[in-house]
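Reopening: structure tokens for the zinc ion complex, inputs below.
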Amino acid sequence: MKQKVLTLAVTAAVGFGTIFGGYAAKTEAESVSELKGKQSEIQNKRSGVKSDINKVNDKINNLQKQQSDVKDEMKRIDFAISDTTEKINDKKAKINATKTEINKLQGDIKVILDRMKKRSELLKERARSYQENGGAVNYIDVLLGAQSFNDFIDRANAVATLVLADQEIFKQHEADKIELEKKQEKVKKDLAGLETMLADLNKMSQELKVQMAEKNKLLSKLKVQENEAHEHAMNLQEQEGILAAQEAAIQRSIKSEEDRQARAAAEAKRAAEAKKAAQARQQQSSSSSSGSGGGGTVASTPAVSGGSFTRPAAGAITSTYGARWGTFHWGVDIAQGGTVPIVAAADGEVYVSHYSSSYGNVVYILHNINGQMYTTVYAHMRSRLVGAGQHVKKGQQIGIMGNTGDSQGQHLHFELYKGRWQFHSAINPMGIVPL
Ligand SMILES: [Zn+2]
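Re-run output (same inputs, fresh job):
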């Protein structure tokens, strides 16, 4: 049986000598009022377990609510991450566009600088032509060709205008260059701003991813807690099942004790009447006997050994009692392939025979070995051949080895308790049961 499930089961264990009490003729009977006291004790325990189940279910609901809250938060973070990623991509595109613009402006500035250089050379050329009279426009000739003083003034103005126009063009180039440089300055500032924003966005994205990782961690922690709570709920359900079985067994004992008392009363009455009749007739006749049938299909495997206990199944011991994988294995595993009979380890009374999600098909037997009570548990069976309340003999077949419940591979998980079944109190059967 897997460790997890072993931890399970039941905190119950209830006063329970009564099991044999039902067969009053064999052992000392408990009174009906004692039995009823035990029954109400079990009922109290059951209502305690039921309230625990409610609490665990509340816890499970709460954990599920927390998980859905965390998932909502994760959705929000996820949205924020994709929003941030979108903005990052947008900023990157803008940065690229800005860089392209800067390159273009640098190109434009270079073109203007080239033009200015050419213009400056042209102006120098013109200045030389003023002096050497060899330029394309001979200003001196223009001036000397004046017809009158007024004409001279006009011509001088015209020359001045030409010179000014050249200077104006140069100035215009200079102004263009300054404007482009200013523009470039501004674009560079824009670029720096964009890069700052990008860095901020990257930082935010990083923080969001950290938050997301934390939420993921929290979510898996909550999931683990929920699984544990489910397991706890399963344990409580198991406990409730066993308590219900115990209550039913006590109910059977009560009925059987009441029947016995009724039979005894009837017998006493009959005996009194017979005595009266005998006295009257001076005759004698009385006889009574009773017996009980045990038997059933006794399996031939394994060989029934002497002593109080016998081996419950043939096969190899695949796991012993004790620490296993960091936890504790509360039984002994016996495994073998094929159809393997499981037999009662000793004479006793079956008090639980049911299917549980953890133990699968499981039978609990209560034994009275020379006045010492023992409980044996047979888990994961393929099928059960006995029912609660049934008496079994040592070596009598009670089921077939299987792989039901929380089991990996066909095996018998066998537990032994000194006294009644009690949570985490199974003892090592080695040395007591011949294994
Ligand atoms: Zn086991």
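The chain has a mean pLDDT of 82. The helical segments are 3-6, 18-21, 32-132, 139-144, 149-281. Marking as resolved unless the reporter disagrees.
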